[in-house]
Design goal:
The protein has 173 residues and is an alpha/beta fold. 24% of the residues lie in helices and 25% in strands.
């Protein structure tokens, strides 16, 4: 997997000050996407062990609330497979940090509604998240007043509560 960018003090993509990893690769190609350069899976730099160590170091300070995964799309199957070991490591080494993920795909019942985004690690990957912002960006539904999302069809989902209840529970901000 490649990544396009790392922001070590991001306040736009989740609650609190966060470390954000913009992965490369997206097949959704939403009209007026804010980050079209990340559609290409080969764009950017390799997501190496050194990069993962750098991210963990950036996540360590108390003022950092957690990790945000976006892109591109972290829910593309090849990205899920590459991110799963890293997300497990974040959970083990920094259990107090929250993990947010942005996807253009749609969450349903612990997995992804669109079959092309599901793979053998999808349920496990999703179960390690705290919040999933799902849904395609739709230009006609764009609303700059929305918190942590770009268009009104997108949802900010509390994953732990959704898995427990068996239905989508929105995250209250």
């Amino acid at each position: 997997m490649n990544y396009a960018e790392i922001k070590k003090t991001d306040i736009a993509n989740g609650e609190g000050v966060r470390v954000s990893l913009f992965v490369s690769g997206c097949r959704r190609h939403c009209k007026n996407c804010f980050n079209k350069v990340t559609w290409d899976f080969s764009y950017g730099k390799p997501f190496t062990q050194d990069v993962q160590n750098e991210l963990l170091e950036a996540l360590a300070p108390d003022y950092i609330a957690g990790l945000t995964l976006l892109g591109g799309d972290p829910m593309e199957p090849e990205n899920q497979r590459a991110l799963l070991p890293f997300v497990r490591r974040v959970r083990e080494e920094l259990p107090q940090k929250t993990i947010w993920c942005y996807t253009g795909y749609t969450y349903r019942d612990g997995a992804i509604e669109e079959e092309q985004a599901n793979c053998e690690v999808t349920r496990q990957f999703i179960s390690l998240l705290d919040v999933l912002v799902d849904g395609r960006f739709v230009e006609e539904l764009k609303d700059i007043r929305l918190v942590f999302r770009g268009s009104s069809n997108q949802r900010v989902i509390d994953i732990k509560r959704s898995i427990e209840s068996g239905s989508v529970v929105l995250y209250l901000t």
